[in-house]
Amino acid sequence: MPATVAGLRYPHTRVLLPRTRLAYVHLRNLLTDAKRDRGARVSGYVAIWLPEEFLVLYLQQGELVNACTHNGKEFQPLAIGAAVEKVPGEPEYGEICFHEAGDEQLSCMYASQATPAVPWPAELRSTDPKALFPYLMATTFDGLVEIAAEGEVNYLLFRHGSVHTAYLSGAQTGTMIERVSRLFDRDRRALHVSVRRWGVAEPLPVQAATGLVQAYRDLGTSLVLRLVANGRESAPAIAEHARQTLVKTHPSLEGFSFNGRPPRAVVADAEALTAAIAALINEVLWTASDQEGHGPEAMLRELTWERRHLFQSAGLFDQLSWKLA
Prior knowledge:
Blueprint: H1 3-6, E1 14-21, H2 27-36, E2 44-49, E3 54-60, E4 63-70, E5 75-77, H3 80-85, E6 95-100, H4 103-114, H5 129-138, E7 143-149, E8 152-159, E9 162-167, H6 176-183, H7 186-189, E10 193-198, H8 210-229, H9 235-246, H10 270-288, H11 295-304, H12 308-314, H13 316-319
Helix pairs in contact: 8-10, 8-11, 9-10
């Protein structure tokens, strides 16, 4: 596995599964138990060290809600379905752990993995506490500071330039001030220490469920096929042109395709994904369907009928240009 992530350790409130060889753990069973077992419905993260990459799965109340991957160079958000598929059913190599952690810490972890850090001033030596903390106080900094050393990742949350919460790895002894001070011991600073910062971390995003993504894929495909059957042979080209036009505003449409290209994984929350699909349907139907009579309404009603409750709960019908009875 990449040396940059082989020794990563994140803070936690409780160890549910210590770092263990992946061959001894069935990931899907672990995730299923976390969802079904009342005592295991916790918020936390599952970290998985594979030979070529490092995965972090985020859970809230036992539900898998997001994921990130590190390819040896950088972290990137990853669709939760794609993340689970990366783990072999019978792995020979790799390690895994399952740790409980609060939602606030999970937000810090995700922000540090999925969003770019705010750069420090060129003249500031961020690894020197005698320069770092006075600077943060002077600028009344609000946000998140990550301190990583020897694989231990730590998070400090600031309000008006002062630390109000800390999530720290390593030894649990001592006060918060003593533990933070140890992060900057001269012996540790002689090694590689990374100090980065972000603004106030947003709540951990919840990715759209795999079932909702598939339902929207099926709906898009069915819509194009129905238009073709109705005599609009250019419907696939119209749908692909609409997708390419809308993708800058709705990035989740990268996960769809109407020209034969294999669809990519979708990394988006349900609200953003629903808005994207509604915009796509509106564009395609305004361009490709017969607007006379009740053509679009009847077609949408028929195509969405079997999954109407799913689409209704996601808010799709409220964003379509046609109101369905």
